Amino acid sequence: MDIFAKCSLFTAAKEAIAAGYYPYFIPLTENEGSEAVFQGRRLIMCGSNNYLGLTTHPKVRQAALDAIRRYGTSCTGSRFLNGTLELHEQLEEELAEWVGKERALVFSTGMQTNLGTISALVSREDVVVLDKQDHASIVDAARLGWGETKRFRHNDMTDMERVLKSVPNGKGRLVVVDGLYSMEGDIATLPEMVPICKKYGARLMVDDAHAMGVLGGGRGTAAHFNVTDGVDLIMSTFSKSFASLGGFIAGDEPVIHYIKHHARALIFSASIPPANAAAALAALHVMQEEPERVARLNEIAARMRQEYRRLGFDIGQSETPVIPILIGDDMRTLLIWKVLFEAGVFVNPVISPAVPEGHQLLRTSYMATHTDEQLDRVLEIFARVGRQVGLIS
Questions:
Q1: What would the 3-class secondary structure string for 63-77 be?
Q2: How far apart are CA 126 and CA 69, in angstroms?
Q3: Are 103 and 91 in contact, with CB atoms under 8 Å apart?
Q4: Which of 114, 129, 150, 369 is the most exposed, having the fewest neighbouring CB atoms within 10 Å of its CB?
């Protein structure tokens, strides 16, 4: 059979494009934070991970421009060879201090951070234990490692303990969870998780891609629960609150040193460009200097959760600026997305298999830079559309 045959048989996306409800790869003319422009129309952006609104912050922009002037546009090599600048090491030092760990290591993307870290640590005699709602990068990283993968029910500590108890003695154990789950908007129950991991000799890694800049005063989920010492590895990306591109892993010095010399995703990738490193560092400084941004973000999130529930929308267990609108059907999710888009609100439709059947949703997310007027407008549109399509009464 021709290996390309499957490509011709894949027609779902083209059918959606032809029918006018394809919601992906939308080419925006502008995307300046809380608003975006598509074909001359302005939309309120409620589908971004720019939680602190730092992509347009003057200090972040200027830092990127200054780095290009000084270093050029690329390091043209891996961190292992010619691709490490003093700027990279400064960023690593300040990130480690920010999250309360000895060392940090910067990768070129968040995906590579998980792929490199987990595959480097998990050998044939090890078991990696995942929450069933973990991000795809964690799942792929576990597959890339040589060890066995086991999974437990989402945020179910009884089931997590059952899985850990089933691991034979003599095998290494690494538990990996999202800190803030990017679709559901709920938070990993780290205070319960930490003692269970200690009981079974398991190490704990938390993916704080969506929690950094959002929880714990911006320091992430472990800081939010005051259990930083109980979390062995903290990971995050630069493509969300840090307003850049890249990622990092932080932990004890011997562990980070080992990852640095064994993570193929680091060794065989070009390093993060100077402008991205400088932008991430500047974003970190803004988080430190302007804590009111984190406070504003969480005030907005609390208001929107309250208002959606008051209107009658099902938002699940969200407790963060990621607020799902649960719908439960692929086609209905796409159609409601389309009506909202045409009404001026940009959200993200999430359908199967990205979520289980019956859990299809519209993912909404909020920024510290959203104005009260914008939020009022979003709620007004959601209320009108929700009644129009029979989602609320």
A1: HHHHHHHHHCCCCCC
A2: 46
A3: no
A4: 150
Q: pLDDT tens across 134-191, in order? A: 999 999 999 999 999 999 999 999 999 999 999 999 999 999 999 999 999 999 999 9
DSSP state of 244: S
Q: Give the total number of structural domains in the chain.
A: 2
The 10s digit of each residue's pLDDT in 113-150 is: 999 999 999 999 999 999 999 999 999 999 999 999 99
User: What is the pLDDT, as a whole number, of residue 295?
Assistant: 98
List, for residues 380-391, the tens digit of each pLDDT value.
Answer: 999 999 999 999
How many other CB atoms are there within 10 angstroms of residue 261's CB atom? Answer: 11
Instruction: With H, G, I as helix, E, B as strand and everything else as coil, classify residue 50.
Output: coil
Look at strands 41-45 and 345-346 and give their pairing. parallel
Range of the domain at 83: 56-289
The CATH code of the domain that includes 242 is 3.40.640.10
Rounded mean pLDDT of 337-345?
Answer: 97
C-alpha span between 236 and 172 (Å, rounded)? 23
| Token pair recorded at residue 376 | 């009022």
CA 213 to CA 199: how far, in whole Å?
A: 31
